[in-house]
Fold this sequence. Notes:
By secondary structure, the protein is an alpha+beta fold. The chain has one domain (31-164). It has six helices and ten strands, in the order αββααββαβαβββαββ. It has helices at 2-20, 62-66, 68-71, 93-96, 112-116, 140-145, and strands at residues 34-37, 43-48, 72-73, 78-79, 105-111, 120-121, 124-125, 132-138, 149-152, 162-164. The strands form three sheets. The chain has a five-stranded antiparallel sheet with strand order 3-2-5-8-10. The chain has a three-stranded mixed sheet with strand order 4-1-9, with no helix packed on it. The protein is globular, with a radius of gyration of 19 Å.
Amino acid sequence: MRKIMWMVLVMLTCPLMAMQCGDKDSENCHTKILFHNNSDKLIYVDCEYSYPDTQSYSRLIQPYLSNAHIHGTMPGSSNNIALQASFHRPTCWEYEIRFIPSDTLMVFVFDGEMMESASIVDGHKQWDERMFLQRYDLSIEDLRRLDFQLHYPPTEAMRNMKMWPHYRE
Length: 169
């Protein structure tokens, strides 16, 4: 009888938990970071968990260009796909950041036009430091203060966030 009760409990609990783990954001669970491109250029955006190691992000341009529908953000538009907590399963940034050793999420912004026009050497487009436009180093508290929305160029609301180059008024 006890075994049957446990099975019933599990069968009732699992669907309820699955409903809560969907890709809908709530006050305590944000699956995506909305990125706004307020510039006049195409940009690519991505994130990395290895702070402070800025060399760890991919030096290969092709994966970004091959996935432009994910990483690319047109001038004056927004992107809610590139900065998902996980592409493999719905999860929350509030949960995901707990597993980053530094508790810091790095978000990189790249010049899309420069990436697309990069020279090809040995069959690969070559990385150029001038492609890099901005890096945000964000804690979960920063993301909460910004309501899980980032902007390029950074807005006044972002002035106290850790970033490079630094915020300019």
